Structures are given as C-alpha cells and as structure tokens.
Amino acid sequence: MNNSRTTITQFMIEEQRKIGASGDFTSLLNDIVTACKVISNLVNQGDLIGVLGTAGSENVQGETQKKLDIITNDVFIESNEWAGHCGAMASEEMEEIYEIPAKYPRGKYLLVFDPLDGSSNTDVNVSVGTIFSVLRVADGVENPTAEDFLQPGTTQVCGGYALYGPSTMMVLTTGNGVNGFTLDQNIGEFVLTHPSLSIPEDTREFAINSSNMRHWEAPLKRYVDECLEGSTGPRGEDFNMRWIASMVAEVHRILMRGGIFMYPIDEKMKGKGTEGKLRLMYEANPMSFIVEQAGGVCSTGRERIMDIKPKDLHQRVPVIMGSKNEVERVVAYHKEG
Ligand code: P6P
C-alpha cells in the first residue's frame, strides 16, 4: 500500500478547512462513498450472488428495471437516510421523492441520484456507474417536497460519479476543480489518483448512438457527417467514434483524454413529446458540473444545461458535452440552423 496517498476523507476534510465548512457535507459525502463501495462489491460479484438479470418491473421512466437497479437504490437510501445530513432524496428508480423517516433527523442537503447508470450493461459485464448531485434545502424548509429539488444545476453543492470499471473510481467536484479517486481494494479506501482533472479543448473523438441518425436534427447531422468525412471533408482530419451506452464511462473517457458526448433531441423524441433521453436532475446536471469544472462545455445545443430551471424531477434534456471547441462548434451549427 502506498502510504503517501491521500484518502477521499482526508481530501474532503482539507477542502472543508479551506472553505470553513461545518463538516456536515463531508459526513454526507462519506455516506455516499460507503454506498458506492457497497455497490462496487455487488457489481463485481455479479452472477456469483445472483444479482444480474431483470427484476420483472418498470421504473417511472417505463424502463425495465434490473435487479441491481433496485438493490443499488436501496443501498443509497439505507446509507444516506439515517445520519441527519439529508432533508430528502430522489432517484431515477423512484417516481416520488424519498422522505426521511421520522425516526431520523433531517439535514440541510438534498441528494438526487441514478444509483446504477447504464445498468443494461451489467448482464454483459461492461462498465456501469453511479451518478449523484447534492443540492441545498432552501432556508426555512422543514419538510422538502419535489418542488424543492427543482433547482438549476448552477445551485449544486456537489456533482459526482462512481465508475465500476476495471478499477472502481470516484470523480467529484464541489466547485473548486475536479478530482479523481481510485478504490484501493486492499484497504477499502478511495485514494487520490487524479488531482485537478482537465479536459483538452480539442478532440477528434465523438460519442453518439448512431442508430438514431435518421431522426437527428439538421445541425447535429451536419456535425457528425463532417466527423465521418474526416480528412476528405471540411474538418480535414479523421475522427474516431466510441459508444459504450454508459454515460459515466463516456464522461470519464472525456475527462481522461477529451472527446464529445452527444445524446441530442431528435424528431422521434419530439413525436413522443419528450425533450431528450437523459435526465436533467441526476445525469445531465451533475455531469455538467464536473465537465464544466474541468474546462469543458455542456449544452442542449441551444442553451447551457446548468442554466435550465427544472420543470419536473424526471425531466429529460438533450445533452452535448465535452471538449470546449467541439461543443461550441455544435452549438454554432444549431445557431446557424
Ligand atoms: P442507448 C443508460 O441507460 C443511459 O441513461 C446513459 O448512461 C447512456 O449514455 C444512454 O442511456 C445509452 O442510451 O440509447 O444507447 O441505450
């Protein structure tokens, strides 16, 4: 074990001293970290403990729930409901907010999360993750309601994710840059391995589910076509493409080496009256906080994601995020129409 490593707890206490925080948030983060360690263990054991496959139910999104979707949601609730840091919780897997039971004290933070993003990958042993966002309970609010969660991304106290990949990592921001921690299985601690992450402003790697191509709006199709034309087209350089169907893995790759991740609105979604595939509160906003803090840009194509005033807990939005110059190019194409 490398004794010189900084644990995530040590890092957060040192951050807390810098900003003169009370320690409440550090304690909340510790409980979130514990939940992610438990989830990492469950995901890593997979079929050995019979947690793979579907649960035979649907979530509020109408998506088939995996057993792990429900199990990991329970892990997050049980880890964060008792300590008195949360005023309420909300999750992709629960239609309504989770009110803290009367037997526990209520705290000053709202925790909203996707307990296992990309869970369709668990059955095929591909990386999945947890995404979480921490908001403040408004002053004077004793019993938070769903309405109290509907704050724009710019009000987030923390945005973070855990990535259950070849190694388990946590990446988070509290507004002072982005730092990455790797789970040292020998001691059961996340240790600082990727301080001050920064996204290259340029990239030649894009991520999109191309099976939706026939439904894309013209500006998006123009951008992707130019990437595909590569050195024979207006960009004058070849591009690479990736699609993992796990937002956490895509965003992590972008933090490591740059890139642009796109899940745009399309004509098919418009026909169904939805505004995108990904959810604002527990996917787009926390990931936008992280990407922006690492020097990237996050847009719907028409507006900054973190400026959106949420209308609904499970609101969907178009997502175009990553390397600054590429996202700004896509936004410019939307402006040109
Ligand atoms: P598709 C996973 O369900 C998710 O919410 C994101 O993690 C991922 O980027 C996207 O949806 C995958 O969507 O259409 O490829 O299944």
Description of the molecule:
With 337 residues, the chain is α+β, with helices and mostly antiparallel strands. The protein has 2 domains: 8-194, Fructose-1,6-Bisphosphatase, subunit A, domain 1 (Fructose-1,6-Bisphosphatase, Chain A, domain 1, 2-Layer Sandwich), CATH 3.30.540; 205-336, D-Maltodextrin-Binding Protein, domain 2 (3-Layer(aba) Sandwich), CATH 3.40.190. It has helices at residues 8-19, 24-45, 67-80, 146-149, 218-229, 247-257, 267-272, 280-293, 324-336; strands at 54-58, 64-66, 86-91, 98-99, 109-117, 128-136, 158-164, 168-173, 178-184, 189-194, 205-207, 240-242, 260-263, 278-279, 297-299, 316-317, 319-322. A hairpin with a 4-residue loop joins β9 (178-184) and β10 (189-194). The chain is globular. The relative contact order is 0.13. The protein binds 6-O-phosphono-alpha-D-fructofuranose (P6P). 6-O-phosphono-alpha-D-fructofuranose binds at residues 117-118, 209, 245-247, 250, 277-278.
